[in-house]
Amino acid sequence: MSLSGQTLILVPVDFSECAGSALRYAAGEAARWEGDLVLLHVVDRRLAEDIAGYTGEPVEKVKDRMAGRARKAFKEFVARWGGGDRVRESLVAFGLPFQEIAVKARELQVDLVVMGGYGSRGHGQIEEIFFGSTVERVVRLLPCPVLCVPMG
Hints:
Oligomer: single chain
Mean pLDDT: 85
Shape: globular
Number of helices: 6
Family: Belongs to the universal stress protein A family.
Distance between the termini: 28 Å
Helix content: 40-55%
Protein name: Universal stress protein
Domain UspA: 9-150
Number of strands: 5
Organism: Dissulfurirhabdus thermomarina
Largest sheet: 5 strands, parallel
CATH class: Alpha Beta
Pfam families: Usp
């Protein structure tokens, strides 16, 4: 259990359909255990750096714009997929997704991480083939349970 004595579930969100399924499942578990959800979107620093290189903008400006869009998207995402009554907070982090998910999970001392099986990039990417998916990397880094939810 988390420091508050209440079950705390972290749900990484990339706003994909699969993340929506994970949110729906996590909300059900939070209700079952009278717990709370923390939603986390990670702005991938590699993407922000690529955009900054292409546009010539400072990476901080790109990062801020992407984070602002994510904060707005949380409202629509929760409205579509549910669970809003269980969401304690929605966070935006900047870095490599698997690392930031692991850092936040440890920092918040979550009891469970519920993730979609694959995200907005889909599956079958070259990086995933050679280095593993974000879910696999998170599982390797965390001591708490990580539940991978398929779309549906």
